[in-house]
Design a protein that fits this description.
This protein is an all-alpha fold. The chain has one domain: MFS general substrate transporter like domains (Growth Hormone, Chain: A). Helix content is about 80%, strand content about 0%. The chain is globular.
C-alpha cells in the first residue's frame, strides 16, 4: 500500500523527454509485486509453446502443429474483449481484476496437468490447449489492466521493464530447464509450470490485497459493453489501429519462432534436447538484461523510437539462418534475442500512452489481447506451411534443415512489414 501511494506522488510525464525521477525501495517493491506473475505465467506459457510441439511432433506434421498452437489466436480474439470490459465493471472484496486472475490461474493449472496425460491423443492435447489459452487470456487481460490502474505514466516504461525482467526469467528457466526436465520425465515441465502459476498468483493476491480490495467497478455495463468500447476505441483512434496491426506482426514473428525453434534445432540441425536447451539459454540470458534496459530507455527516449531500432536489429539478425547451418551462427543469438525482447517488452508501454485518459483500462488491455490474438493466429500457421513447402526446396539451409529454416523467413517478413506501421503510430497520436 505504501509503495503504491509512493508511486502516485511521481508526477506523470508521458512525453519523450529525459526522466530523472528515481524510484524508492518501496516503489520498486510495489512494481516487483505487480510484475512477479509474469515469471510464473511466462514459464508455463513457454513450456506449452516451445515443448508441447515436441509431444505433438509424434502425432502430427508441422502444419497441424502450427494450426493447433495458432488456435491460441482464436481464443485471444474473443476472451480479452469479454474479460476486459467485464473486469472494468466488477466489484468484489478483492477488487475488479483479481477474481478473473484467479479464475484464469485455475484453468491454466488444470490444462498444464492434463497435457502430458494425453500425450498419445491429439484430441486430448487439443482440448487441453484450448483450456490453457482460455485461462491464459482470462488471466493476462485483467492483469495487464492493473498497470494503468496503479502505475502513473512517468514510470510505465520501467514498470514494463520490471515485468519484462520477470517474464524473461521465466522464459530463461523454461527454455533451459524445460528441455532437461522433458528428457527426465515428459510430464515434469508441465507440472512445474502449474506450480509456478499457483505460487505467483498467490503472491500477487497477498501483495495487492490492501491496494485493490476496496476498489469499485465503473458504472459501465459489464461484459456486454466490452465489444462496443473496443470498437469505439478503434473507430476514434487511428494510432491504436496502427498499433494493433503492428503488434499482430510482432507477435506473429515471435510465435512462429517460439513454436518451431526447438524442432529446428533438434530435427533441422540434429542437436539433442539438452544441447538445444543449453543454446537457448543464451536467449534467456539476453532477455534478462534487455527487458529492464528497454523500460529505462522507453521512459527516457520514448518507446516508439527504441522499438524502431529493435525491429530492424531483430529482422536483419535472422539472415544467417536462411543461408547457413553452421552452428557458429549461434553466437548471433545474443544480440538478436536482445533486440527481440526489447521489441516485445515495450508494445504495452506504447499502447498505454495511446489510450485516452480515464478510458476503461480493462477494455484498453483487451486491445493488447486483440493484437496478440491476430499475431498468434497467423504466425505459427504461416510457419508450419513454410516448413512444409521449404522442405521441397532442394538447396541450401532449407534442404539441410528439412525445411525448418523457412520459419525464420516468415518471421523476417512479418517484422519488416511492421516498420511502416510503427512509423505512423506517433504522428497519428498527435
Amino acid at each position: 500500500m505504501a509503495a503504491a501511494e509512493g508511486l502516485q506522488r511521481i508526477s506523470p510525464r508521458d512525453g519523450h523527454g529525459a526522466h530523472k525521477d528515481r524510484l524508492s525501495r518501496a516503489q520498486l517493491r510495489f512494481l516487483a509485486v505487480l510484475g512477479l506473475p509474469a515469471f510464473g505465467v511466462a514459464f508455463a506459457y513457454t513450456v506449452v509453446g516451445t515443448y508441447l510441439p515436441v509431444l505433438l511432433a509424434d502425432l502430427s506434421g508441422p502444419a497441424v502443429t502450427g494450426i493447433l498452437i495458432g488456435g491460441e489466436g482464436v481464443v485471444a480474439l474473443i476472451v480479452p474483449i469479454l474479460v476486459g470490459g467485464w473486469s472494468d465493471s466488477t466489484s468484489t472484496g478483492i477488487g475488479r481484476r483479481l477474481p478473473f486472475v484467479l479464475a484464469g490461474a485455475v484453468l491454466m493449472v488444470l490444462a498444464l496437468l492434463g497435457m502430458p496425460l494425453g500425450a498419445g491423443s491429439l484430441l486430448w492435447i487439443a482440448i487441453s490447449l484450448a483450456v490453457f489459452f482460455l485461462g491464459y487470456f482470462g488471466y493476462y487481460t485483467p492483469y495487464y489492466a492493473l498497470f494503468p490502474d496503479l502505475v502513473p505514466g512517468a514510470v510505465r516504461g520501467r514498470s514494463q521493464g520490471i515485468q519484462g525482467g520477470f517474464r524473461s526469467a521465466g522464459l530463461l528457466l523454461a527454455l533451459v530447464g524445460g528441455g532437461f526436465l522433458l528428457s527426465l520425465w515428459r510430464p515434469l515441465p508441465f507440472v512445474i509450470g502449474a506450480l509456478a502459476v499457483v505460487a505467483v498468483t498467490v503472491a500477487l493476491c497477498f501483495g495487492l490485497r490492501a491496494r485493490v480490495g476496496s476498489e469499485r467497478g465503473t458504472d459501465q455495463p459489464s461484459s456486454g459493453s466490452g465489444l462496443r468500447v473496443d470498437l469505439g476505441l478503434l473507430r476514434s483512434h487511428r494510432a491504436i489501429r496502427y498499433w494493433i496491426a503492428a503488434d499482430a506482426l510482432w507477435e506473429g514473428a515471435v510465435d512462429a519462432l517460439k513454436t518451431f525453434v526447438v524442432l529446428y534445432f533438434t530435427r533441422g540441425l540434429g542437436m539433442s534436447l539438452r544441447s538445444t536447451a543449453t543454446s537457448l539459454a543464451l536467449v534467456g540470458l539476453a532477455a534478462l538484461v534487455a527487458a529492464p534496459v528497454a523500460g529505462k530507455l522507453a521512459d527516457r527516449f520514448g518507446a516508439r523510437r527504441i522499438m524502431q531500432a529493435a525491429v530492424w536489429a531483430f529482422a536483419l539478425g535472422l539472415i544467417p539462418t536462411l543461408v547457413t547451418t553452421n552452428t557458429l551462427f549461434l553466437a548471433a543469438i545474443v544480440p538478436v534475442a536482445f533486440a527481440a525482447v526489447v521489441l516485445m517488452t515495450l508494445p504495452y508501454t506504447l499502447l498505454m500512452r495511446l489510450l485516452p485518459d480515464r478510458e476503461a483500462h480493462g477494455a484498453g488491455a483487451s486491445m493488447f489481447g486483440l493484437g496478440k490474438g491476430v499475431g498468434v493466429l497467423i504466425g505459427p500457421m504461416l510457419a508450419g506451411l513454410a516448413i512444409t513447402f521449404s522442405d521441397r526446396v532442394p538447396v541450401g539451409a532449407f534442404r539441410a534443415t528439412a525445411g525448418y529454416a523457412g520459419v525464420f523467413g516468415v518471421a523476417m517478413v512479418l517484422l519488416l512489414a511492421s516498420i511502416p506501421l510503427l512509423r505512423r503510430i506517433e504522428p497519428a497520436q498527435r
